[in-house]
Amino acid sequence: MAYWLELDEVSVAPYLEALNLSPAGRDRLEEVLQREIAECADTYIQNPERRLAPGSEWFRVDVVFRDPQHADFYDLHFIISDAAAAHGVLRIGFVENRSVSRPELS
Fold first, then answer.
1. Nearest Cα to 41, choosing from 26, 61, 64, 27?
2. 82 close to 59: Cβ distance less than 8 angstroms
3. 3-state SS assignment for residue 11
4. Is pLDDT at 105 greater than 90 in this prediction?
5. Bridge partners of 84?
6. Helix, strand, coil share of the chain (percent; to 5)
7. Which residues contact 16 (CB under 8 A, 6 or more apart)?
8. Which pTM was predicted?
9. Cα dihedral sign for 24, 19, 10, 39?
10. CA–CA separation, 8 vs 10, rounded Å?
11. In 3-state terms, what secondary structure has residue 78?
12. pLDDT tens digit string along 47-98?
C-alpha cells in the first residue's frame, strides 16, 4: 500500500528545505521518499526491529541518495509515525542528515 507522507511543519519540512540540494537533488529526494518510504512502508511497519520501542507508533527508516548535479551523497535518518496508517497517512516527525562531508580533492 502506498501512503501519503506528511512532514512535520516545524522541524522536518524546514530541515529538508535547508539541505544544500540542487533542483535535480530535490527531485531525487522526492523520488526516494516516494519509493523508499511511501511505497515500501509496510515492510518497515511490520518489522519490530525498526520500532523505537516495543508497541511504539514510531519507526525508523534510513535512506541514502546522491544529488545528481552536485554529486554529493546524503544519508538521511527519518523517524516516522504510523498512528494514522489506517487512513493511508504516515507522519515524518524527525529527520537527521548523517552524511559525512567528503574531503576536497586537490
1. 61
2. yes
3. coil
4. no
5. none
6. 30, 30, 40
7. 7, 29, 95
8. 0.90
9. positive
10. 6
11. strand
12. 999 999 999 999 999 999 999 998 899 999 999 999 999 999 999 999 999 9
